[in-house]
Amino acid sequence: MSAWSELVDYLTVADHWWGRRGIATRIGDHVQISVAATAAAVALAVPPALWLGHIRRGGAVATAAVNVGRAVPSFAIVALALPISLRYGFGLGFWPTLVALVALALPPIFTNTYAGVAGIDRAVTDAARGMGMRGHEVLWRVEAPNALPLLLTGVRTSAVQVVATATLGAFVGFGGLGAFINEGFRQQDDGKQLTGAVLVAVLAIATELLFGVGQRLLTPWTNRKGPR
Amino acid sequence: MTTRPARWLLAMLLPLAIIAAGCGSDDDDSASDTTAASGEGGGACSEATAPDDAPAITIGAQDFGESAILAEIYRQCLDAAGYDVSIQEVGGFRDLELAAFDGGDINLAPEYAASMLEALNDQAGEATADAQETADKLKGYLSDLGLVALTPSEAVDTNALVVTKETADKLDLTSLSDLADHPELVLGGPADCETNAFCLPGLKSVYGVDLSAGFTPLEPAAVAPALDAGEIDVALLFSTDSRIVTNDYVLLEDDKGMLAADNVLPVLTTELADVEGLSDLLDAISESLTTSGLTELNRRFDVDVEDADKIAESHLTDAGLL
Amino acid sequence: MRDRPFLEWDWVLDHLAEIRAATLEHLRLTVIAVVLGVVLAAALSAVALRWRRTLAPIAWVTGVIYTIPSLALFTFLVPIFGLGSTVAAEIALVGYTLLILIRNIVAGVDGVDPAVRDAADGMGYGRWHRLVAVELPLAVPAIIAGIRIAAVTTVGLVTVTGLIGLGGYGSFIDAGLKRQFPTQIVLGGGLSVIMATVIDVALVGLERLLTPWRRSPTQPLAEPEPLAGVLG
To answer: How far is C68 from chain A (nearest CA, A)?
Structure first.
């Protein structure tokens, strides 16, 4: 297939790999912004989700709001963030893209963390209280560990979506892998465009696998599978 | 208990209902058709009569304001003459437009003589500063595709390399030749600049200026804001972009003649060109277009955020065509 | 953006006809995608439930589709199907709904109490009869939870189709981005959130209608895990 050979042709030119706009640099940029966006989303979503789950209140409204937040187009956020970023000296590229990616990453992390805490059997938390634990101890020693598997699943989902969506940064001068897709499209260079798309998909799958391994290490007690 | 969700549902549906009711009376997207039909002056477009057997016309508009305005101008004029005419957006890429011609999705499009020629000859650099000469060469390539170009208008829209006034003063820049001493400058523009004969490759071959090291590919919309914010030093805009004047940019003079005759002209299928009277109407439109006029139409679109159909209508009326 | 306010109501009121047309177009693209997605996902789920060994490959393929950047997918489909092609848009949109829907359908049917299943078997139900008459109704909450996530996600994704010449809310965002006009961007994004909310609430209502024996709707809590089939 010609598309395939164009991809191979593009990937096998050494010059395409190095330099300011080379594949290596762009993979680095792509990974960097994905890590930053996922970390920021964890910092923003987990504390309120833990707290709401702990007090078991406001969850339905919060999860509905966050769920509908999925419909906010990342594309629109990038477009609105660009002029603001330029005006306040944050420049092109990284910051306007980061804002959109953080917004994208919030819903899965929030809903899963909340579900992880709120879904714990009342009997368990009541037992902890009966053992003399205070509210914050229940949260940290019972609820948070119990919510960890679901929380990590949320982070994993967000991270994969962030990796796949960071391509939108190409519209505002961000040099991640999306730049190959955009340039390939504009320059009618199929090899370049495919390079971007394939590398993003590979990176997304790698993220998924990495989180899978990390999840097993962090929550070893969930490794034993049920009968399914 | 059962009524509450129902009421909630109603409340949620309300905004959509209002939107839908907002224009409940007019069907489909014919809002722009009605404005065109209202032209009842005695211009060339409204006086012309489409032959009964004239084929339906679909105009391809590229995804920037000027192309949308030009397509609307064509559409409203032909509509007034009684043709069955509509507009199809074809994105910002010429190969998509050509594919649309090839597939019969469109049969007319506003184009630019030199850029289209270079797109068809793989950026071989055949275009010159002479509009007619360039258009004639273009016709040679078009005929293989069953297409034809009409007489070029006087309106020119080329690539424009601009810098801010401060940069121009500081580095004493007035022309593209002056860039030779400043390879460190960061050029920002749409990604196709890298392969376009009137951008990076042209700068290198005609001026010996190599700005490729710092080239920053940007969406067209982000170019001027990036220049204002100092993120890039040199910006690639279109010469009919009103911001060159309103933002006080310095247009670097093309002192060695890299740029060619990017005059606006209609490109259409030979089938359409054979329709009696149609080419005359398109020629009349071309005669009404000037570079400064086009810049003003763009200003109304970009700065006053008017709609393309309204801008087109007033242009046709002012030109006495409607 | 030249210090323009985020939303200029004059412009909005002047463009109600365009807003209405974009709303209908956006709704059309979303509904087609979700309906086709549900039909296709139901068929694939039936296969996966009937022949267990097919579940992993189905999860894998739909998971990989989920990781393809929408921008790339749309731009690749354009040369094949032409600009403004509903087919190109729907292939991409339907593709993205599959993973979410299949996981929820399979999980919903799997989650049916084994005792209920045994009871159905005891009453002499065949495999398909049991699936349709017993398991599917009981899986409705999980299935609708999946449809809610899929529908809301699709409403957001449809905006990207503005880039390939389709006229939903994305065309406002696109136009606003091109001339640095915030009103159009805010309008496109805001309307898409409103539409998502309306559809979400409507689906909650549908769930109540279909499952009158339940009090409160299931929250769409569990996220689809793109490639969990590989690891789990």
So the answer is: 6
